[in-house]
Amino acid sequence: MSIVRPTPEQLKELASSLHIQLTTEQASQYLDLMQASFDAYDVIDGLPDEIPAVKYPRSAAARPAAKDNPLNAWACKSTVKGAAEGKLAGRTVVLKDNVALAGVPMMNGSSTLEGFVPSYDATIVTRLLDAGATILGKATCEHFCLSGGSHTSDPAPVHNPRRHGYGSGGSSSGSAALVAAGEADMAIGGDQGGSIRIPSAFCGTYGMKATHGLVPYTGVMPIEATVDHVGPITANVRDNALMLEVIAGADGLDPRQYAPEVQPYTAALDRGVRGLKIGILTEGFALGNMDKRVADKVQEAIAQLEKLGASVATVSVEEHALAGALWQPIGCEGLTMQMMHGNGMGFNWKGLYDLGLLQHHAHWREHADDLSATLKLCMFVGQYGLTRYQGRFYAKAQNIARRARAGYDKALADFDLLVMPTVPIIAQPLPAAGCPLAEYVARAFEMIGNTAPLDITGHPAMSIPCGTVDGLPVGLMLVGKHYAEATLYQAAAAFEASMDWQQH
């Protein structure tokens, strides 16, 4: 096969886009010199791609009828039965719809990606199936995952299973909703600003954003590699720890992974909290939109941990707000470059690239007006930073992120865990169709004040349900040292065993 060679006029236009001016004669001369490079492109074009083999058969995929999808939480159903034996034998799993499942459509919440079908399974999918899980299909997620609400997904908003007409949280909206509704035992979610923990808090599930890089992101559509996380959402602590045991660890393909330290997480579940030092993060209760009822419920949960034998004291991490501010240039400029200009893949990293996703997602430019308001907002901020300041603030924010991480590390040198509300509010009513832009955006980002900072610093953070306010779940967030997920599970299991959060 041969790639298409440019004409002299096309090369002149290309050069102009690079701020270089060529005469027609110069363009012809350069074209002659470019032929050897293009010959190499021809060789590559003629070779098969290097992608993993698909190990397990799957049924045809289809979106359930409306009557069978009252929460709008299913993107599509397709059954994939894993190995006959394993840690997850007999367990059912649903995948966030930004996770590659070969032969099953993937929209990532956006109509602009409709029609894309992955050709291979994500690493975590293969690990789940090898461990005996049965995958039931894909869960709806928010538009390219750019929302903490559940009203920004195509084709329809996701409802909270505990109160219809209310948000389930995002961006892993369908994942948490289906687990909370009992339609799946476990789910995979993704987290760049809180997208595992926010829906877990709103729906009353257990959501773990593990240390950055602990779980391989290979085969999951990226937003920004330095904040990309993927992990488990479950109905109980044991399932969460078990699922993390299965999916954690290096795969040799994900550049986010730096020799991740894996532990037998389920071994920590019966240790109790006696002797654990827990720091109540002052800044975590100081958000401007903190609902006092939520704060009080979390304080009651902390008192319960103290009653169980933990040592509890307040602690301040001044960098908490700083880490939240750092998310803006890192998240907005990073996603604009990697997810949008880089067609979902970006450049300058070794690993497994999804050519089909890259090619399909590249067509967003032809349908840019159809992108969600939340994504457009982040793109406008990101592109302005890239164009006006040449990416200076992205670079500086990445440098300062080390300072933010050090602030948490300093507190965690004195405490085993930090605790705070996962989100400052309970689930809110879904905005009406056609609501003002300001309301649409506010409902998408009003809850990320405590969650986004931990995506910047990479610390493990887990949301556990700790009670209710007005009949809706409240989430308590546990934060630990890098690769100390076992300590989070230790505390979460002790709290879970001590009380029924739904009666509290």
TrEMBL record:
Source superkingdom: Bacteria
Record keywords, A-Z: Hydrolase
Keyword hit for Electron transport: no
Domain Amidase: 72-488
Listed EC numbers: 3.5.1.4
InterPro entries attached to this UniProt entry: Amidase, Amidase_CS, Amidase_dom, AS_sf
Name recorded for this polypeptide: Amidase family protein
A molecular-function term among this protein's GO annotations: amidase activity
PANTHER family reported for this sequence: AMIDASE, TRANSAMIDASE
Keyword Hydrolase annotated: yes
